[in-house]
Amino acid sequence: MAARRSAPRPMPRPVRWLAMFLAFVFVVSLGVVVNHSAGKASDGTDDRSASSSAATGSGKGASGSDGYAGLKAAGLPAPGKWSRQSLISTVKGKDGKRTAEAGQSVGKGGPVDVALETVNSLLDPKPSDDEWSRTVQGLFQDDLAGESHGPSNMARYWWRQRRADPDLLCTGRSSDLLIVQSYNCSTDHEYQGDAHGMVKGTQAWTQGSDKVFFDVPESISSSIGASTDPQTAVSKYYDAVAFPMDDGMWYVTVECPASGDQPILDDKGDETDYGSLDDVPAGKRVWISDGSVGVGTNQRPCQPVEITVGGQKPFWYIGTDEGD
Q1: Among 128, 135, 157, 205, which one is most buried in terms of CB atoms within 10 A?
Q2: Which residues are within 8 A (CB) of 18 and not within 5 positions of it... i.e. 6 or more apart?
Q3: For the segment 266-315, what is each residue's pLDDT rounded down to a tens digit?
């Protein structure tokens, strides 16, 4: 007769608690491993996207965390220190003598920065068609005379097909470049500069010319004497930025409301409370405009009023191409 096997004795209570705890830890650990593996696969896709974005040089701009995608796609440079408006930096020494030198403001409201933001909004491939349409419709403001010049009525696919063509800056034909500016060109009409150098605002408006004319609002005409050319006063509010593109030169014209009182700026592009340079204490460096073209501030940035593309002429251009 087989011996009867005695019934198993239950484990002591502390041992049972330890076993339950180890089982619980095992289950939790298994879940973490599974979730981590799944998350790692998903993160791999995100990392590749981030790496691709970084490789294209996408920076943070007005369009969001992946801003300036439109500029990058077209081969145009993104805004940076290079695009800040060129101003005059001045400081008064303890001896009361003031020195001045060409400098740059770090504010982002200047003509070239605003023009780059404008072009990026037109070329940006990221927004939906509806979002893009709403952005474009609200992009341009009236000029000083209250006239609306609106966006060019090109379809979105047309904008997205455009690419930069810097050699257009070097043809030597005045009809190809309507603003006063110089570029780095070779003798065989090829552009030799860097990407930043191909996008510039006008250095100065040609006063008394038969090619440039701005409508003068009464607020300006009534404040100047009869011996002063109104164009001298009104042109200081404007700047035009040239973009060499594969369909021809683009011009983004901006109007800068701060130009009326020529504010004194700090090194961040903010307007100061100084009424004149005489009010600025010794040792305090400030920035001022030379007054020839529009100047923007952080408080009152320039604003786009028009873009012309594909050989169209800006609203201020009244010249002809004869003899070019």
Answers
A1: 205
A2: none
A3: 989 999 999 999 999 999 999 998 878 999 999 999 999 999 998 899 99
